[in-house]
Amino acid sequence: DTAVSQTPKYLVTQMGNDKSIKCEQNLGHDTMYWYKQDSKKFLKIMFSYNNKELIINETVPNRFSPKSPDKAHLNLHINSLELGDSAVYFCASSQDVQTAAGAFFGQGTRLTVV
Amino acid sequence: AQSVTQLGSHVSVSEGALVLLRCNYSSSVPPYLFWYVQYPNQGLQLLLKYTTGATLVKGINGFEAEFKKSETSFHLTKPSAHMSDAAEYFCAVKGSGSARQLTFGSGTQLTVLP
Predict the structure, then answer these.
(1) DSSP states of B22-41
(2) Apex A110 CA angle, A104 and A114, nearest 5
(3) How far is CA A36 from the centre of its chain?
C-alpha cells in the first residue's frame, strides 16, 4: 500500500554503464517529479511530468531521460554514468501543479557510481 | 523566481527544550509554504503547509509554523523536543510560474541531546 514506490533502493554501478530507476504512485495524482539530493542533502528538481507530459526540465545533462508511460509511472534512465551522478534520487507526486497540494515522496534510490 | 533560505544548517537542543528552525522565502506571488522532515535513509514526509487563511498552522508530531508576510518568514517550532525529532528538516516554497514546483531550502539537521 506504499503511496510512491521506487526501485531499486540501492544501485551500485560502474562508470559508463546505463541504468534505470523506476517509480510508481498509487495516489491517482496527475503530477510526478524527479529530485536529486546531493551529498550535502541539497534537493534539486530535475524533471516534472503532468499527465504524461514533460512540464519541467531543469538544467540536467541529456544523459538523463525521463519516461512516463502513464500518469502513474515516471521512470528515469541514465546513460553513460559518471562519478558525479552519485546521489540519492527521489521520485515524488502531487495532485496537480497548480493547487496548494504538497508532494509525496518515495523512499529514494541511492546511486553510487564507482 | 522563488527561493528559500534556512538559517543554521545544524541546530542542537536538549530534550524538552523549545525547537526553533528558521526559514525565509522569496516569491513574486503569494506563496505556498511547506515543512518536510527526512529521517535517516528515508524519503521526505510532509509536516505541515501554509496555503491561505490562518497564518499559524499546525502539523504532525506537535510541530507548528507561523507565516509572517512582513518578515517573509515561515519558522518551524515545537514547544518540547523529543529524541525522536532528530532528523533533517526542509522548508519549501511553491510559487509562481506555469509549473509550480517545490523549491527546497538547504535543510537543517536537528540534534536532540538527552
Answers:
(1) EEEEE-SSPPEEEEEEE-TT
(2) 160
(3) 7
Cβ-nearest to B90 among A43, A48, A56: A43
- Count of residues in chain A: 114
Residue A43's CB is within 10 A of a number of other CB atoms, namely 23
Q: List residues of A whose CB lies inside 8 A of any B CB.
A: 4, 33, 40-45, 48, 50, 55-56, 90, 92, 97-98, 100, 102-108
Could you read off the pLDDT of A23-34 as tens digits, one per residue?
999 999 999 999
Q: Which amino acid is at B43?
A: G
Residues of chain A with pLDDT under 70: 1, 99-100
pLDDT mean over B5-16: 96
Tell me which residue has cell 528559500.
Answer: B4
Distance CA B86, CA A56 (A): 33
DSSP sequence for B50-110: E-SS-SEEE-GGG-EEEEEGGGTEEEEEESS--GGG-EEEEEEEE-SSSS--EEE---EEE
How many Å apart are CA A3 and CA A92, to the nearest integer? 10
Q: Give the integer Cα–Cα distance in Å for A64 and A9.
A: 18
In sequence order, the 6+-apart residues with CB closer than 8 A to the CB of B21 are B6, B8, B11, B35, B75, B76, B77, B89, B91, B108, B110
| B18 DSSP assignment | P
Rounded distance, CA A73 to CA B104, Å? 23
